[in-house]
């Protein structure tokens, strides 16, 4: 029941409530990059997501959302890089693009914004995590939401596609497994695998499985999602990678973590994945921590599937992004409406 408060208390509480929303500053960065995998089209992912109205939808979440679109990353080939590294396709592009990307992500975070990177294929995780780590002086943990572990090295990969390798490049525990990588000196493998958790795994290569088991990597596959439920899984993952609740969280969200019925327009779709509701729940949980530092949304490929498939995939991506920045499925109360006293809230929402 509504209990009238003293006028003074009521006024102060009302003001506090009206200003309770966290100011959220977002920097959007597109990475039209497709060289980490062989399929044409994924380079058009960023613009497909933008053209579906991403910025307007984000702006509608609440008034304290401040969005700046930094456009797309462009890069020049570094001619000095030795062109060939065994079993890493288009290596020189990978090294050159991620170098630029890392600098961009670092700058956006240093501008005081949460960096939202739109891919592009998942090899861009090398640059985004690197830039985030540099901006936050290594105080970063990573939630890798994906059907795949992306933990191959050039020795274990059967394809040579670098979008299956970013996590192995980033993990300090795996640095000895790589040859010298020319032109990648800026990228130090500094994140300990202890600060990384996976959610959504269901297509893991044998060597990746071995590494996950040997290093004791926190990995919640679909079986764990079934056993515990998504809410418990996210909480356990965050507890493991950020036990003191003080790190900047990097979410690298591969749209193929979602079931291929939810997100069919992606290069390496795997059935039996997360529902859109589970994907949204992950990001709502991360939002509630208040510590999201950067998010990647990758592997949307508008050239795969029917027009309807593409629409469904892009919409799913936008739902997941909206949840990351405070959109609530419970609904948000309009903050600018004159409030009749009866609607005076008994709690703030965040
Ligand atoms: Mn991936």
Automatic annotation (TrEMBL):
Gene Ontology annotations of biological process type: L-arginine catabolic process to proline via ornithine; urea cycle
UniProt key word Hydrolase: yes
InterPro entries: Arginase, Ureohydrolase, Ureohydrolase_dom_sf
Catalyses which reaction(s): L-arginine + H2O = urea + L-ornithine
Annotated metabolic or biological route of this protein: Nitrogen metabolism; urea cycle; L-ornithine and urea from L-arginine: step 1/1
UniProt GO molecular function: arginase activity; manganese ion binding
Domain of life: Eukaryota
Cofactor binding, per record: Binds 2 manganese ions per subunit.
Recorded GO CC terms: cytosol; nucleus
Enzyme class per UniProt: hydrolase
Alphabetized Pfam families for the sequence: Arginase
Sorted UniProt keywords: Arginine metabolism, Hydrolase, Manganese, Metal-binding, Urea cycle
EC number annotated for this UniProt entry: 3.5.3.1
Descriptive protein name: Arginase
